Amino acid sequence: MTPGHPFRKGLAAGIPVALGYLPIAVAFGILARSSGIPPWVGMASSLIVFAGAAQFVGIRMMALAASPLEIILTTALLNLRHVLMASAIAPRIERGTRRSRLLVLAFGLTDETFAVASTRPEATFPASFHIGLNTAAWTAWNLGTAVGLLLAGGLPPIVERNMGISLYLMFVALLVPCTRTARSMLWVAILAVGVNLLLSAIPALAGSEALRPLLATILSAFLGTLLFGRSPDPAACPQPAATGPDGEAAPGSAAERGDS
Amino acid sequence: MAPLYWIAILLGMTLVTCLPRMLPLAVFHHLRPKGAFRTFLGFIPPALLASLTLPAALASTPTPLAAILALAVALVLALLKRSPVLVILGGVAAAVAVDLLR
User: Does ipTM top 0.85?
Assistant: First the structure.
């Protein structure tokens, strides 16, 4: 595999995700261990479910001996937002990609891998780029889970209790370059935060960290469509330089094509 | 609990996690959305990232002040076009510093 192979590019782009995942996965492993469920269940959960928020909630519900149906329905609700993410990322995958590769790609689609892929500068990218990105994220998540299960704590407490913000910081790192160059994206992002805050005033939605952001996203994207009316340009999200550590142009990017 | 209980839960969780990821990807990869729906999908990334970040980030550190400072540092570093790794490390360092000074 050459250094410029899309899979390797994806692995490199996944480094920030992996860094963000590690401490949270360690925390998940510790929680799974301290919840009294068998360690293999915690590990298998990371290996085959691979859905952070749903796993945290699932482990808590298992510890409380909830019924399988309750746990599965809660997981389904928490993962509804992935319908939006998968719908948005699908047209960005190069045409002609085999269905089997799409299924492999879909397995690793999380909030964070979506954040990295959806803010790539190129209009479309190969599935292998996204699979590389997912591989970095999945590996870090499982390594962290294993460390948490085995060591029951691997970071100094002061770092551990502040690492929860790292994933949000990654969202900032990815969102800002888009909003700098596409004003409509900035307004939609601000709108989304405003709608999210307004929805939190509704008692039924106040405590729902799954449903409220989902509704806020749909409403603000809809309002953005009405207000701005033309398609946001995916090329308006310049990727920060260090996510491509070898400094080469990403496949299909304007730089690689020689576009000015 | 019997192993079957755990296996049923794990398989069910895997199914309801994979389906919302796989079905739209399979459908919209072949039926490319156009017009207003394409515009709507284009606005999903900034809307989703922003609504996932705020206000949830404020509860992710021991105090909201630590989160606000971490987000501010991250915002400045991102505006200065620093790498995501540096943005994350800078923000976490700010949160840890606030925690140390408490």
Answer: no
